[in-house]
Write a structure and sequence with these properties.
The structure is a single chain. The protein is mainly beta. It has one domain: Beta Barrel (Porin), CATH 2.40.160.40. The strands form 2 sheets. Strands 1-2-3-4-5-8-9-10-12-13-14-15-16-17 form a 14-stranded antiparallel beta barrel. A two-stranded antiparallel sheet has the order 6-7. The chain is globular, with a radius of gyration of 22 Å.
């Protein structure tokens, strides 16, 4: 089984670096479950949405029961600037696949310009510039021609994997419209550009759209309602990959619980996502679990994700700034 998994992993990773006849690099972006914890990944237009400085760190372990899980890390910082008339931020992410065989590191630099339409509505338009590095560590891979029928993987194979790191730039744009307690956003990632000039290959464009609202249930004269329902729908399309998230958060004072379903457009259900977060003063701690519904890996133990968000104190000079009524973490 160990040898089979290594062979399967090597074939899969080699395919990720292959180029189709349409000159598209075969790869899909990392998917997180706590989409509103890592807001800058969902849409760069969220930069500065809380006005005060905000830092975020996230860890995701997908299919820990498998021999080669997918492990992703991310961290970001953003805040609003009155001088720039918008928010700015930086985001870093590292993704390990196949037990570290395939690695990706990227850095995003974001500016989001905010326009006040009226006292109830605002529009934010963002531009994000990124740099990526991809690489393969092929030293531990075992191919079919390296396996002796009697003694196992002891032969020197003829397969050669190009492990030279790939560097490239990237552009993303997004907008976010808020009207009272409603919001809608669109994010277009990987605006076509060359990744490997000699192959004229490109990253497949990704389109993310989200819509949601925050409905207070009981306010009792409080500045912030004690109970809030937050329905949200997120749609992601990248090449032939289509995924739909939909569900609801229920805020109770300084805690929140959420239940979401994830499926494709053919109603093939991938996972049910359970999340919980708690506010400890200015620190928000969130945990989510993806219960696998597809049956693809029966003993995968789902996916686990932990996020930390810290919002610093600051003196708000713009009284009618208007933060976006999306999930608070």
């Amino acid at each position: 089984m160990l040898v089979f998994n290594k062979i399967f992993c090597s074939v899969l990773l080699t395919a990720c670096f292959s180029v189709q006849s349409a000159n598209v690099l075969l790869a899909q972006d990392v998917q997180f479950s706590q989409l509103f914890a890592d807001k800058l990944y969902l849409n760069p237009a969220y930069a500065g949405s809380d006005y005060c400085p905000r830092v975020m760190a996230s860890y995701r372990n997908q299919w820990p029961g498998a021999q080669f899980p997918y492990v992703s890390y991310s961290a970001s910082f953003d805040q609003y600037s009155e001088v720039l008339h918008g928010g700015y931020g930086i985001r870093l992410m590292k993704d390990d696949q196949g037990g570290g065989v395939f690695k990706m590191i990227n850095a995003d630099f974001i500016y989001a310009h905010k326009v006040k339409i009226n006292h109830k509505s605002t529009l934010t338009m963002a531009l994000q510039a990124s740099v990526f590095q991809w690489g393969i560590n092929a030293s531990g891979l075992v191919f079919a021609d390296m396996i002796d029928p009697v003694f196992g993987p002891v032969l020197s194979g003829s397969e050669r994997v190009n492990s030279k790191a790939i560097f490239t730039h990237d552009l993303t744009t997004g907008f976010l419209l808020r009207h009272r307690k409603y919001f809608i956003g669109v994010n277009i990632s990987h605006i076509p550009h060359n990744v490997i000039p000699e192959h004229n290959s490109i990253l497949p464009m990704k389109i993310t759209a989200n819509i949601g609202a925050a409905f207070p249930i009981i306010k009792n004269g409080l500045k912030r309602p004690r109970y809030i329902l937050e329905p949200n729908i997120i749609f992601i399309k990248q090449q032939t990959f289509n995924v739909l998230y939909y569900g609801m958060y229920f805020d109770v004072s300084k805690t929140a619980m959420g239940v979401f379903l994830r499926q494709d457009l053919k109603f093939h259900y991938d996972a049910m996502i359970f999340s919980f977060h708690v506010d400890v003063k200015q620190l928000k701690i969130a945990y989510s679990f993806d219960a696998n519904l597809s049956g693809f890996i029966k003993h995968s133990f789902g996916s686990h994700e932990i996020s930390l968000v810290y919002l610093f104190d600051c003196r708000k000079k713009i009284k009618d700034y208007g933060t976006i009524s999306c999930p608070s973490f």
